[in-house]
């Protein structure tokens, strides 16, 4: 599971029938450095790296921090129904706290 920031919505003109009444969000997974500045970081200011489309059952808003499930775990909540989902919002995050000492240990500079 990774932490990501919601940066947009996806609208489909044609969709798989199992996507009826769903919300798709455009999310960018955050690395440790971005996560420590998650409230102020502009994910789209520079190369965002990986951008994903995620199923959103929690109505996450633009700028929200979310826990992101990927792979088979993303589709697990829908079992036994089969949905073509590779990433799903698993939780909305109010705050994320990172210990400064831990951050220093992972400092790559």
Tag the structure with descriptive keywords.
alpha+beta; 109 residues; elongated; 14% helix; five-stranded antiparallel β-sheet; OB fold (Dihydrolipoamide Acetyltransferase, E2P)
Q: Secondary structure elements and their pairing?
A:
Elements: E1 2-10, E2 23-29, H1 32-36, E3 52-56, E4 65-70, H2 72-75, E5 87-93, H3 100-105
Antiparallel strand pairs: 1-2, 1-4, 2-3, 4-5
Outline the structure in words.
- The protein has 109 residues and is an alpha+beta fold.
- It has one domain: Beta Barrel (OB fold (Dihydrolipoamide Acetyltransferase, E2P)).
- 14% of the residues lie in helices and 31% in strands.
- It contains three helices and five strands.
- The chain has helices at residues 32-36, 72-75, 100-105; strands at 2-10, 23-29, 52-56, 65-70, 87-93.
- The chain is elongated and about 50 Å long.
- The model has no long low-confidence stretch (mean pLDDT 81).
